[in-house]
Write a structure and sequence with these properties.
Arc Repressor Mutant, subunit A; 0% strand; 66% helix; mainly alpha; Rhopdopsin 7-helix transmembrane proteins; single chain
Length: 413
């Protein structure tokens, strides 16, 4: 039973990496969190067991510095999901300082012979009250305080991570709010699965403790009680209770669908089908075009590929490929076409009667009049002023809709 949790965590970690690696390499943060959490719980169980003393000697305090990374890595997993890419910045080094402090604190422990560590592990397993090792020296503070400080540190970071998600949800776009709602709901489903059984165990130990008010887990909760050995299984099993976390991204795209689409593309290329008929739009392109048509982000002066990547949760390189390979155009050229179409729609509604050309350019997303004139002439072969004289004073052409370019890719050359 002890090693079942290890195998289950390895299975879940493998599925997560296979399903999410191509979309967002930030999934590695979550995998590390799972592994470290499993090691910490596994060590706790071995400390209250009578077997596998050598394994306990290998794990005891050696992984304590890494356990202080659980909270920061969980935060950066959430940041990677929100930004649609692997996130690692200078603040991660700051958040890793407590782990470095613990590493330095336990350096003397690492230098002891393995036989002494086994002997100390056996003494811990035979001690009901688990006062902690007393034979090993440390640099800053006793080893027994590391467990409590690590738990408090990680809990603080998890609460900070929730605050980060809630703050983003209040200020984000509609598409980002939807993404964050899915993520928050997933986490809130896992928390009760983990917390409630642990609270029951703590309450049981407190109620039955021979020393009132003291948590003597070994004597109360472990002897002749197999329930406690199911505790490390709760976290990996919770992922199977929320299969969308294992197999799909935040936009509901299923990993099986991705694999099917990839194999279909390979078969079509091998059979030469791509030359016989136009290729269907990929799921990525559909999401990108839907976002552009719905939100019209191109009217913002600083609209960029990063904004698309963040909004639709697709890595930037895949967004670039959608423009270059599927639409056969660069992103700046596509953006200019949309902005020119928006300017045309403003002119059709008589905006030039109350607003200057510079004002129309800015309302369409252009940073300067010269860029607007250049893009407009590239599209229509004339300046905006010439177009107004020709189309609004003489000819009566059909209205040009700004969404034509985002709905129908045949407009893009």
């Amino acid at each position: 039973m002890l090693f079942t949790s290890v195998l289950l965590v390895l299975l879940v970690s493998s599925i997560l990496l296979i399903s999410h690696w191509s979309q967002n390499r930030g999934i590695v943060y979550l995998v590390v969190v799972l592994l470290l959490f499993c090691i910490r719980q596994f060590t706790f169980l071995l400390m209250h067991s009578d077997s596998h003393t050598e394994v306990l000697a290998l794990l005891l305090f050696h992984f304590d510095p890494f356990s202080f990374l659980i909270g920061p890595f969980f935060l950066y997993y959430l940041k990677s999901l929100v930004q649609g890419k692997f996130v690692a910045d200078k603040y991660l080094l700051v958040y890793a300082i407590p782990a470095l402090v613990i590493l330095i604190n336990t350096l003397p422990f690492y230098s002891y012979p393995f036989a002494e560590k086994v002997a100390e592990s056996a003494a811990i397993q035979g001690n009901y009250y688990l006062d902690g090792p007393t034979n090993f020296s440390t640099v800053f503070f006793p080893l027994k305080y590391q467990g409590t400080s690590g738990g408090l540190f990680n809990l603080t970071f998890i609460l900070f991570s929730f605050a980060y998600l809630i703050r983003l949800k209040k200020t984000g776009t509609n598409s980002l709010k939807k993404k964050l709602s899915i993520l928050i709901n997933r986490i809130l489903m896992v928390i009760p699965i983990l917390v409630i059984p642990n609270l029951i165990l703590i309450g049981y130990a407190l109620f039955n403790s021979p020393k009132k008010g003291e948590l003597i887990f070994r004597q109360v909760a472990f002897e002749d009680n197999g329930f406690v050995f199911f505790m490390p299984l709760l976290l990996p099993l919770s992922f199977f209770l929320i299969p969308s976390w294992l197999y799909t991204d935040l936009e509901g795209v299923h990993a099986v669908d991705k694999i099917r689409a990839y194999l279909k593309g390979l078969w079509q290329r091998a059979a030469g089908h791509h030359a016989a008929a136009p290729a269907e739009k990929s799921a990525d392109l559909e999401r990108i075009l839907t976002y552009i048509e719905t939100e019209k982000p191109y009217v913002n002066l600083n609209f960029s590929l990063h904004d698309i990547s963040l909004a639709v949760n697709i890595p930037r390189i895949r967004v670039t490929n959608c423009f270059n390979k599927e639409l056969n155009t660069s992103f700046p050229a596509y953006r200019n076409k949309l902005r020119v179409a928006h300017a045309i729609s403003l002119l059709r509604r008589g905006a030039h009667l109350t607003t200057s050309i510079e004002g129309i350019a800015e309302r369409s997303g252009f940073k300067s009049k010269s860029i607007f004139y250049s893009a407009f002439k590239e599209e229509y072969g004339m300046t905006p002023t010439e177009w107004i004289k020709k189309n609004l004073e003489v000819a009566k052409e059909p209205l040009v809709q700004e969404s034509d370019y985002s709905k129908n890719t045949s407009h893009v050359v």
